[in-house]
Specification:
By secondary structure, this protein is an all-alpha fold. The chain has helices at about 15-25, 30-35, 45-80, 85-90, 100-105.
């Protein structure tokens, strides 16, 4: 029994020959780097146009990835400096943070219940 080749989990809009070549790249980062390195040449064909678009999207993706990593590192430093006791609480008793609401309550950031605004029935 011959099994069909595994398809890439990524959807790529490009001419069939180019799409088949790109679908063979299974690793996401390898695909992004491959796309970012495309050299479309003059934009006189649909293949060149597709290459230019894919290259621009991949380069933007890489720029955003660097920016996200920078923000994550900054947040990690802020958290370590400004809230070390919170990190200790979370690490020491992980069962206390079984949900987002439980974590908010632990941090003192849970919402205060509010009345509906309807008058109470006093009768």
């Amino acid at each position: 029994m011959v099994l069909p080749a595994a398809k890439s989990p990524y959807s790529i809009s490009a001419p069939p020959a180019q799409r088949e070549q790109l679908e063979a790249v299974a690793d996401r980062m390898a695909l992004v780097w491959h796309l970012a390195a495309l050299r479309p040449g003059p934009l006189t064909t649909t293949t060149a146009s597709a290459k230019a678009s894919l290259r621009a999207i991949a380069r933007r993706w890489l720029d955003l990835d660097v920016e996200i990593r920078s923000h994550d590192a900054h947040l990690d430093r802020l958290t370590e400096r400004c809230a070390p006791e919170m990190l200790i609480l979370v690490d020491d008793e992980p069962e206390r943070t079984r949900s987002e609401a439980a974590f908010a309550k632990l941090c003192g950031a849970c919402p205060v219940p509010a009345l509906s605004g309807k008058p109470a029935d006093t009768g």
